[in-house]
Structure formats: structure tokens, C-alpha cells
Task: structure prediction
Amino acid sequence: MLDQSSARVPGVPSHDAVPGQPLGWGGTAGRISEIFFGNLLFSALTLGIYRFWGIARIRRYVWAHIAVLGDRLEYAGTGGELLRGFLIVLLMLVPLWLLGIAGEFLRLQHPWLAVAVPAVQFAVVVFLLGAGRHAARRYLASRTLWRGIRLAVSDSPWRCARVQFLWFLATLLTLGIARPWALAAETRWSLGRLHLGTQPFVFTGRPRQILRPYLASYILALLTLGLAALVARQLVIGSDAFALLQGMTDAGAPVPKPQQVVLAAGALLGRSLGVLALASPLLLLAWFSFAAAAMRWRWQNLAFGGAGLSLAGVTGWSVARLQLGNLFLLWMSAGLAYPVVARRRIAFLASRLWADRFPDVSPARQAALVQLNAEGLVSILDAGVGGGIGL
Amino acid sequence: MTAAPATLHNGVTAVPVPVEAQLSPSALRIVRADGATETWPVGALREIDKMPWELRIARAGAPQRLVVRDPDMMAALDTALTPWRIDEKARRRRRAFRTALFVPLLGALLWFGWPPLADAIARTVPMSWEQRIGDSVVATMTNGRRRCEAPDGVAALNRLSARLAETAGLSARPSLVVLDSGLVNAFATPGRHVVIHRGLIDQAGSPEEVAGVLAHEFGHIRHRHGLRHVARAVGVGTFVSVLIGGSDLGAVAATLVVTLSYSRDFEAQADADAADVLTRSGIGVEGLARFFERVAGPARREPSLRAYFTTHPDPAERAAGLRARGGEATAKAMTPEEWQALRMICRPAAS
Result:
């Protein structure tokens, strides 16, 4: 059967058709920490150049300790490739940077440039992020081997960027209502373009399947914000403290004493935090309940080799525990808890992912090797890749 | 010869192939159930990874992988891989050695080489461009703040400015802006602008102190420090972002640390220039020295004063340096009436 608790479980015969868990994780946060802190030390000693080799080391360890159907993954990328990709992308971004400088020069003569240049820059960044994410996934997949066969991501990054940019605009213009459609397009371009060699993963998710949970979250968030605004109006904007601070800007008004200003600002801050504290549980409920629904939807509509996948036990509460816990760990440790966070992310997925039968992998053939690495683009523009596990 | 069952991933399909691995001193023979064999020379064996329960190896440059779980075969392959491991270790050592040479060289090249290069780049920027940058900076920094424009005060300040600019040999008189703000600060921007906060005039004990600050800012203008600082900082920022990755807090902090040292160099150069101009104009360096001492002494209890010096050398040292370098006063910076008018520069005109 497919059940396995760790990466050391040996492979299973391909005729086995008992449902089970296809992913196993056999690594430890302790060993990731050793590599992580070693990388930090070497990066400091080499003015940061070692960073790229450090990323490759961590990935080699993590990949080697993730078993799929009992066979461990292999990471075949190198630090040199990551560095080269990063530098190429940096050169690609020079025109964008020059555009910003030119805008600064010219905006005094042409005031409309003060708005137009940042708007164009923002649009280009959003577009490049879409392309960069797809190209980065393509590179990462091509350096991930399972049973000696490379994963592959098909289609052009530029087409992906075009589609995602249009959905981004649609989401913006519809005040977020188009999000389920955008999410479906996004997933079709991530999981739906994934292959093991030449054999595709099949994503059949439809936006209407997540429309209801999305609308529920959307309405809950809107109601909460509306309620919070009403309460804030009474408690904050209608307060004497607010009137006192507002009066400071009026010409001819008596200037309040510094102590009064401090007390008023403190009172406003306290009340604002109070309103936020009242609203946050409902906002978090809205956010995480949809995040969990989207996660389940994504996996249960994914199939490979005739085997359907699903996520069990993924609730708003479990996703909140994972994501808020990770955020808390990273904040409290200034990023040093990264190894624990990485282990938590992988273990979360590995322990909840199920396959309804053993997939038939016999059609898979070796895929061509992708040369271009665009991880640098995503890294510079501050978005994470790493197979969805933040590596 | 050691023989054991193993699993071959043939690099063409994802279906694992059960095989028998036979290891001799010169080669690894892989025999399939149908009798087909392939031979990997021992010298071409490469370890992919090794777990306590499993060894994964490859043939150099080939996509096939052989997974061995038999303990005896794992031990035998381990021994066969020893020469390759020694080579790998030597290769890593050579790389570490090269890095150990390269990194300090790169660091030294950037530390000493970048400032003159950035300065040369900055000097190629036409003055008209610099003017636009300066206009933009001043417009941003003064946005929403009241400018002090009492006519007598402006006239007094302009007379002092003209005198100092002429002595400093500036080709065009800098434009001065006084902001109605309690901050004790003044700064020069690219494009020959000097912005003075009212707090500095309020705190100054004499017109010679204001003249000293102006002469110092004119030093920045004469050497185009603003533009050179931007050129240096942009280069450092880009380089640090590339090395650290992205524009996170670490990159910002590292850039700040490097650029602060540039700031202090420019301040020292502007001080030297001010000493020269103040001496030649007859105003003398005592006013500026006293201003620095005021900042170094009781000003420590005044947080607003510190803002002016966060990127500057120690004020007491600067005062001592000025006195050692500059001459005595032979003329006043302003008449008492002009000084009075300057101190009232932010007072709104009576309607």
C-alpha cells in the first residue's frame, strides 16, 4: 500500500491499487538548521556570493528526504546556475530602473509623469512577476528528478504573464469578485502545466467550485470591515482625542500641550487597536477558511496517471495554525527559524496528501532540459517559489 | 566480486527496473532480468546521495540512477567510490582556496575602486540634468511646508550668500530656501540648492555661525557631493542587493553602513572648503567652530540637534579641526540690522 511515514520507506510495486499517502518526509529540522546556519556563515564570509550554493545545498537535502511513492526526489540544480540566472535577470531589470530615473528627471516639466511612470513600472513588475514565476517553476521542475526522470512545466512564461496580468486587472476592476476565476487560471498555469517527463498532471478545477466559499469569505470580510468602520467612527473619529488632534491643523486654534497630544494619540491608538482586535478574528476566519477551501480544491482536482489526489484534514484552523505559526516563528527569530518553518510546510503537505490509487507512470518519458533560470526575477521582485513549500 | 539486487532508473521511463548489480574492481555490471547488461566503469561512478538504508549512484554524465539497498553492496560501492570522493574533496578545497583569494580582492576592488568610478560617472552628468534632480528633490522635501520669505530677511541672506559664493568661486549663486521648521538642519542638494530650517537660524548665536554653515554647504555644492553621493549609494545599493538578494532589511542596513562612511568623507571635505572660504572672506572660522561646539555640548540633550549630525563626523573634532586650519575674523558676516532681519525671516508679513 501507499502509506508511508517517512522517506525511507522502500518503493512499492506498481500494481498496488490501495489508497494511501504518496508523499513521505524523512528529513529533520536539526539537519536543515545545520545547513542553514552553515550557509549563513559562508554567505557572510563570501560577501553573500555563497548564497546561491547555499540554496542548492538546502534543496538537495530537502529533495533527497522527500519520497514520492517510496522513491526519493533528487535536486540536480547548482549554485552556479542560480547565480547566472540572477545576474541575467538583474540586467533585464536595468531598463525598468532607468525608466524610474528618467521619470524623476522629467516629472518637473511633465507633472503627469509623476503618476504615469510609477504606474507603468508597477504594471511591468506585475507582468514580469507572472513571467518570472512560470519561468522559475519551469527551471525548478527541470532540476527535480524522480526515478531519474525530470519534472517539466510546459508553455511560455510570456503567455502565462499575459493571462495572469489580465486576471490581475480583472480582479482589481471587480474589487476582488473575479478572484476565483483568477485563481483557477493561476492553478491551471502552475499545477495544470506540470509534467513528470512527458506525462502531464491533469487539473480539472473550475472556478464555480470555489465560488461559494469565496463569496462567503468575501461577504464576511466586507461585513466585518463595515462593522469595524462603524465602531471606529464612534470610538475613534467621534472621540475628544481625535477632535483635539484634528484641531491642531486649524489656523488660529490654541496649541495643545505636548502631554495632551501624547495622551490623545495614545487613546486613539488604544481604541484603534481595540477595534482591530475585535475585527481580526472574523477577518482571519474569512481569510483562512477560504485559503483552506482553495487548497483542498486545488489538490482534489489534480490527477496523475489515473490517480486522483486529495487533501484530508485541511481546515481553516489547520491552515491558520500553519501560516500564522510560521509568520510568528519567522518574526520572532528574525528569519532564523526558517529550517523549522520549512519542515512544518513540507510535513503539513506530506501528512495530508492522499492518492485514491497507485498512478500509472509508464507513459512518462524523459523531458528536455530547460536552460534558462528565472528564479532571480522572482527573488529580486520578492515572491517565493520552491514548489509551493517556500524553498 | 560483490553481487546484490538493486533498482535501476533508466533515465528514459519512470518505471523502475529490478536488476542485479555485480561489482568488480574495474566495473559495475548491471544485469536485467531478461539478461541484458550494461557496464559502468568504476572510475565513472558518481554518488548522488547516501542514506543509512540506501545508496543512489549514477554514471558520470548519464541520466541513469542505480538504487542499492543491500548493506554489503553499499559497503563495496562505498569503497569503490573512495577515489572519486577524494577527487571531489580536492576539487572543493581548490574552489575554497580560489574563493578565499577572490572575495578579499573583490571586496578591496569595490571598497577602493567604486568611489572614484562613481565620482567619474557623476561628473559626466550635465549640469542641466543635475539642476532637474535638485529641483525635484527640493520640491519633494519642501512639499507641504511653509517657506520663510520675509523680504528683509531674504535680502540679508542673499547678500551673505553672494559674498560667500563669490569667495568660493562658484560659477552661479546657489538658490536658498528657508523652511518654517524647528529642526536644526541645513543641507545642500544637487543643482545648487541649499535648504535651511528655521531652527538652525534660531539656535545660531551669531550671523557668523550661519555664515559658517552656508560656507560648509557651498563646499558640498562646489564638489557636487549630492550627485556623487547618489551615484555612490546607487552602486552600493545595487551591489548589496545582488549579493544579499532582494531589497530586504539586511540589504538596506548594509548599504547604509557603507554610504555613511562616504557621507563623513564629504563632510570633512566641505569643512576644509568652508575653513578656506571663511578665512578668505574675512568672516573667520570661529563662528562655524562655535556652532559645532554648541551642537556637541548642551545640544546632546536636544534630540532635534542630533538629526543634523547623524551622518557627520564628531562635532567637537570638527570644531578643533576648523580652528587649526582657519584664520581670524577681520570682518562681520552681517550688520546687526541684517542679523535681526534674518532672525525674523519666518515671521508672516503684517497685512
